[in-house]
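Async update (no meeting this week)

Hi team, since we skipped the sync, here's where things stand on the single-chain job. The sequence we agreed to prioritize is pasted below, unchanged from the tracker. I ran it this morning and attached the output directly underneath so nobody has to dig for it. Comments welcome in thread, and please keep replies under the output.
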Amino acid sequence: MAVNLADLSLPQLEGLKTQLDQELEFLTSSIGQLKVAQTKYVEAKDSLNVLNKNNKGKELLVPLTSSMYVPGSLNDVETCLVDVGTGYYVEKSVEDSKAFFKRKIDFLTKQIVEKIQPALQEKHAMKQAVVEVMNVKIQQLQQSQQSSQAVGTTSA
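Output:
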């Protein structure tokens, strides 16, 4: 059911604008969160390039926390453990891991480009339309107040 914006009162338009602002903020935040997740998958996929036969046995630092590392050596360059979600890890070959991360990256890209960005653009256009109608109504209100003041001063 479509509603003609011109039929709404100024307070109703203000409420609609507030709602659209909240939806725009949510969609913008969602895009940001998906891009952070996408970046993590890209970094994970790129990190797999270290796992090759030339690096077998090489020394490296293994992170225990974000600020504490222990020395280690790279023994297995054929497989790795991949976090597949909700705390589950699966042992995969390097190539399977790269394919997994590529699928995740592609899925997030598709969500952003095909679903969230169009919704964001649609909500932004709706907000612009609401603001335009609000401006017209405010101008009409100001003109009617000025004309009523002009009538009030000429009759006095």
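Quick observations from my side:
The helical segments are 10-47, 94-155.
The mean pLDDT is 92.
Reply here if anything looks off.
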